[in-house]
TrEMBL record:
Its cofactor is heme b; FAD. Keywords: 2Fe-2S, Iron, Iron-sulfur, Metal-binding, NAD, NADP. Residues 98-231 form the Globin domain. One of its GO terms (molecular function) is oxygen binding. It catalyses: 2 nitric oxide + NADH + 2 O2 = 2 nitrate + NAD(+) + H(+); 2 nitric oxide + NADPH + 2 O2 = 2 nitrate + NADP(+) + H(+). Its EC number is 1.14.12.17. Residues 237-337 form the FAD-binding FR-type domain. It is an enzyme of class 1 (oxidoreductase). This is nitric oxide dioxygenase. It comes from the Bacteria. In the C-terminal section; belongs to the flavoprotein pyridine nucleotide cytochrome reductase family.
Length: 468
């Protein structure tokens, strides 16, 4: 995939326009992103080599009015329903049908010809785009991330299908979270149709209507749960508009961005937000907010480019002051809250690389609330070398005149430094928070367990370690 190009600046909507955009244009966009889309600019030329029929100018003229009318009608219906619903009783989504007992076994028994899911997914998307080319515009230029997610989602659904309550809760959260992607009920129908085609193509000789019916029930269950989740979250905007007000390239591959949201962004320190840049429309990736909530509505993000073509590369290399960014709703439960217990025990915060972001926000919040009350906070910052301590001056400033806050750099490619630190430190922390690469978090967790920290006192957030 080509590296993102810097586009011309888009003008920022005025506050009144912005609230209209939030409240009306996306009242509820149903999303099943892993199943359906993550969006992309509408391709304007057909590529002969592509297995997918992309949208040509003629197609666009033919499909857009129909498509846009459909969306507009849907918006109006949803808006009407949410206005007419009594405030104490949110608009009801479709009833969630449960899968039948035995569906999981049936699916598992006939899974072999469908594995690995890559080929199934390729046929599925090809079938969908050939039949409904206008849907191609909801997808990113590169479908790689999309295909991977869909494969994981199929595995997750099958694995948990006999625990529909647990699965339903996760799908409802996913549906709420994915409203920002702009996927609509009509798309699910298209998806179901394409999945059926793909299952028949890949299912092999033993494929039967019975197995297909089990797959359809599984899919409908998932879609209904996501729709219910999206509808239940109708009062929360699907995203906030933000403008980049500072962009500091701290390392060739790393930038610290400050983004001011048009409307107040209600988050807690330790939470993360999915971001989207106009350079890669609908490629949303999570980043922790690296500062405690501030009056001026400015959010800080630490972004490291890990490879070419992803959102992180667009944010580090292609973004500057004045550019627009969309910010998804705040998510995540990372916090320093001890629930009133062990208030005298010390806290350990361990940050690896840009995993520093949530730790910095938590320390800032802690400092602002004067919550130390005799507790010491030790912030250990792991980095490959001194030059990788990209935010050290800001941390030193944060620690100035705060004797309860101790900063410790640990340099090196692995966890040796942390292991040595724990060996030399005799008091076991009351709570440990971890942020950084998954291997570091896993390694640090075992070191802490060995040192006697109970499992429920070790916190980390897996959601921010996804590929960017
Ligand atoms: N940008 C953000 O807002 C957030 C990012 N993260 C995650 O933090 C990670 C940060 O990555 P980078 O900045 O590239 O950090 P990095 O790869 O440079 O690693 C930083 C430090 O972590 C330790 N480490 C790395 N790999 C290790 C391994 N395999 N075993 C033991 N220790 C290891 C080392 O001490 C290393 O110096 C990413 O996985 C990202 O998804 C987590 C929370 C927030």
């Amino acid at each position: 995939m080509a590296s993102p190009q810097v586009k011309g600046r888009t003008s920022r909507p005025r506050a009144a326009e912005q609230s209209m955009i939030i409240s009306a244009s996306r009242v509820v966009s149903l999303a099943f992103m892993e199943f359906i889309s993550s969006g992309a600019p509408r391709p304007r030329t057909a590529t002969p080599s592509s297995p997918v029929h992309t949208l040509g100018a003629q197609d666009e003229d033919a499909f857009s009015p129909e498509y846009d009318r459909l969306l507009a009608r849907h918006h109006a219906m949803r808006l009407r329903r949410s206005i007419l619903a009594p405030p104490s009783r949110p608009a009801q989504g479709p009833a969630v049908e449960l899968p039948e007992p035995g569906d999981r076994d049936l699916i598992v028994r006939h899974l072999q010809p469908l594995l690995p899911f890559d080929a199934l997914i390729e046929v599925l998307y090809d079938a969908m785009f050939v039949r409904r080319p206008y849907l191609r515009r909801l997808f990113p230029e590169s479908m790689e991330f999309q295909r991977q997610h869909l494969g994981h989602m199929f595995h997750h659904l099958i694995r948990h299908l006999d625990r529909p309550e647990e699965l339903g809760a996760r799908l409802r959260a996913l549906g709420a979270d994915h409203r920002k992607l702009g996927v609509w009920p009509a798309h699910y129908e298209a998806f179901e149709e394409a999945l059926t085609t793909a299952l028949r193509v890949r299912g092999g000789a033993a494929w039967s209507g019975q197995v297909e019916a089990a797959w359809t029930r599984m899919l409908r269950f998932a879609v209904a749960a996501m729709v219910a989740g999206a509808e239940g979250a109708a009062t929360e905007p699907p995203f906030w508009h933000g403008e980049v007000v500072e962009h500091e390239r701290r390392r060739p591959d790393l930038a610290v961005l400050r983004v001011r949201t048009g409307e107040p962004y209600p988050y807690r320190a330790g939470q993360y937000a999915a971001l989207e840049s106009p350079l890669l429309p609908h490629s949303w990736r999570p980043y922790s907010v690296a500062c405690a909530p501030r009056e001026d509505r400015v959010l800080e993000f630490h972004v490291r480019r890990t490879g070419p073509g992803g959102l992180s590369a667009a944010l580090v290399e292609g973004t500057g002051v004045g550019d627009q960014i969309r910010v998804g709703p705040p998510r995540g439960e990372l916090s320093l809250d001890l629930g009133g217990q062990d208030v005298h025990r010390d806290l350990l915060l361990l940050a690896g690389g840009t995993g520093l972001a949530p730790m910095k926000a938590l320390v800032e919040e802690f400092a602002a609330a004067h919550r130390a009350r005799g507790r010491r906070v030790r912030l250990v910052v792991a980095a490959r070398g001194r030059e990788e301590l990209y935010d050290w001056p800001a941390l030193v400033e944060l620690a100035a005149n705060r004797s309860w806050l101790e900063l410790t750099p640990v340099l090196g490619p692995d966890l040796e430094g942390l292991a040595a630190l724990l060996r030399g430190h005799h008091s076991v922390p009351g709570l440990a928070l971890l942020g950084g690469p998954p291997a570091m978090v896993a390694g640090a967790r075992s070191l802490l367990l060995d040192a006697g920290v109970p499992d429920d006192r070790i916190r980390y957030d897996g959601s921010t370690a996804a590929p960017r």
